[in-house]
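Hi U.,

Before I forget, here's the chain from the pilot set. I'm dumping it here mostly so it's searchable later in email.
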Amino acid sequence: MHLHFFEPPGAWQSMLPLTYTRPVADVRCGILTLAEKWQKRLGTADRSFGTEAYLAAGFPIQHPADALHIHSGLLPTAALVAAIQGLKINEALVSGDTLLAFRGASDGKKIPFDGNVAMVRYPWDLFAHNKQEIEADFDLLTAGRTSAPITDPHTKTYGDRIFLEEGAKVKAAVLNAETGAIYLGKNSEVQEGSVIRGSFALGESSVVNMGAKMRGDSSIGPNCKVGGEISNSILYAHSNKAHDGFLGNSVLGEWCNLGADTNNSNLKNNYANVKMWDFETSRFKDTGLQFCGLIMGDHSKCGINTMFNTGTTVGVSANIFGDGFPRNIIPSFAWGGAGGFVTYQTKQAFETAELVFKRRNRALTEGDKAILQHVFEYTAGERVWEKK
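Structure:
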């Protein structure tokens, strides 16, 4: 069965800046992306996305007639999977007024779903759901399998929900799975003196540096390096927070880098709910969360000793540096900090990206450039200094 992930009106805008460079269903929550969760549960590698046209340069965008269509932000459960598998042609699964999935025509016979429904609608929903999704993905990926052994005698473990894929290495570390599962991906590494509390997931070929403190409910994507202190945060692939400093209740896209001793605030001094920028309405939105930190789009970076205030959003290909707190909404392709910004032109951004990709034996493709060029042009209105 072909899986097609459809995006309702406003879904793509609500998930910005993460969706400037990917469809909604390609965001990571738990160990897997949303699309990967459904693919594994439904047993198919055949997928496509209904999303913004310019993203076709990096993602298959089709509108097949004979497909199983799933809401792009829907998190799977066993009950949902069973209900969706039971859909017949021209039947649609709904929860209240929300269309969850359909086969054939979306306006076909309505089948009500009475179970619990969890959705990703805003970037902060990702870390809010991350613990439950690590646990669900852990069960999905490890069912019927045996973990690779921990052979180092100086590593201390607590609890039994610990799974190492082939080639994963742990040395002189503490792994506490009494609070949640710990998953270490293929060829990943946990270095000496690291302390990890579950729930925690480390992607393929990623590294937890010496002396790191992983406080739980965090997911590190493939080919990342992390250190310092991380709590309830998600890093997508090829991103680094390698040094000391705190990252909490945050999401970093791909190809991001946080300089040494970067810190973010995830709690306001008055303990009030955190407001974050909503790209759909172009105003700040109450998240309903007391803990909410940093959302950073792909290819963005910051210098050493950078301080991010509570509820900060950074766009794509931004470079932040200097003393003081920068503003809590930083547009894409911004260069600067608390003292002000200039525009980071695409020529320079592409040169940097090519160097970064080369370090990972990757090439920046014309498709990659086309997506970034579109984002640069689309976000021009956010760079208010260009209007002066």
